[in-house]
Amino acid sequence: PAPVPEPWLFEHLATELRTMVTSRLHKERLTGLYLVEKLLPLPVANDAFKADVVAPLVAGLLSMEVESNPNVRLKTARLMGDLLAFFTDEAAKTVLRPALTLALGDSDRDVRYFSRRALGLP
Questions:
Q1: Three-state secondary structure along the chain?
Q2: What pLDDT score does 70 carry?
Q3: For residue 30, is pLDDT > 60?
Q4: How far apart are CA 105 and CA 102, in angstroms?
Q5: What is the b/e burial string over 65-81, where b = at least 16 CB atoms within 10 angstroms of the residue's CB?
Q6: pTM (2 decimals)?
Q7: Alpha carbons 59 and 94: distance in angstroms, whole number
Q8: Pick from 11, 31, 12: which is nearest to 21 by CA?
Q9: Does pLDDT of 12 surpass 60?
Q10: What is the CA angle 101-86-51, rounded to 5?
Q11: What CA–CA distance (Å, rounded) separates 92 from 58?
């Protein structure tokens, strides 16, 4: 099995994640989202890291009307569904739900599908 990263690593990753997810290059945004996806299941990815860093970044990315890349919007919608499942903190969910609701009107049908699925809608 792979070694589990130390908790301090997440503190240092917060700045890098913000930089990647808000980059003007879509490949960097996708890479940042991929990294978030891989960090979520790790036991040391505590709720504070997820609630304070990850949820606002992902929600902000999905709700950005300027995001022209459908692959980034799709990856974000899928990741937000995973985030909702990880959070027990209602405050974090209040960041995610409005962004997913906004994504229900996205021009890409896959983004709409994963947004509906994350919200538990038919």
A1: CCCCCCCHHHHHHHHHHHHHHCCCCHHHHHHHHHHHHHHCCCCCCCHHHHHHHHHHHHHHHHHCCCCCCHHHHHHHHHHHHHHHHHCCCHHHHHHHHHHHHHHCCCCCHHHHHHHHHHHCCC
A2: 87
A3: yes
A4: 6
A5: eebeeeebbbbbbbbbb
A6: 0.74
A7: 10
A8: 31
A9: yes
A10: 75
A11: 11
Residues 81-109: pLDDT tens digits? Answer: 887 877 766 766 777 888 888 889 999 99
d(CA 114, CA 78): 6
Q: Which two tokens stand for residue 56?
A: 């606002």
Q: Give the CA diameter of the chain.
A: 42
Find tokens 């003007």 and name the residue: 24
> Of all residues in the chain, what percent carry a pLDDT higher than 70?
73
- Which tokens hold the place of 100? 């997913």
13's tokens: 């990753």
